[in-house]
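debug: dumping io for the single-chain case to check the tokenizer round-trip. Nothing else runs in this session.
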Amino acid sequence: MAINNKVKSTNDLELKDRLVAINRVTKVTKGGRTFSFAAIVVVGNEDGIIGWGLGKAGEVTAAIAKGVEAAKKNLIKVPVYKGTIPHEQVAKFGGAQVFLKPATTGTGVKAGGAMRAVLESVGITDVLAKSKGSSNPHNLVKATIVALGELRDPAMVAQNRGVSVEKVFKG
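debug: decoded output
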């Protein structure tokens, strides 16, 4: 189910970037080895906006800067309800599968490396997360973003059903 929750403008957002993974790539040429770097970066305002980007360059700092610019170009809005997600969600990207489950206040972010960076950048403070299959950071970040993008806002669900938000969560 494709949900259009793209963010239109990035001008008024105060985004914080997090480096998820950096990968050194070696190209063997006639003159020896040439090194370059690939960086996967997550940006978010810690209030429901998240994006990811991949930057490649000969220097680490240039790769990170390119990754941040790429991340700012594909931001999405995520419904965060009382510091957690509104419902359970499963998503898959490539060989990585992620499972996200809402948690009570005070639980914290129970997630591994790449997933933790994404969940903290979006502003989720309490969630239980599990990754299955591939532990490749690129696919884990993408699968987590897909899962967050498929979340439904509790206010919209309540409006569609014609009930209050509290009733949506009770039953």
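debug: round-trip ok. The CA atoms of residues 26 and 35 lie 5 Å apart.
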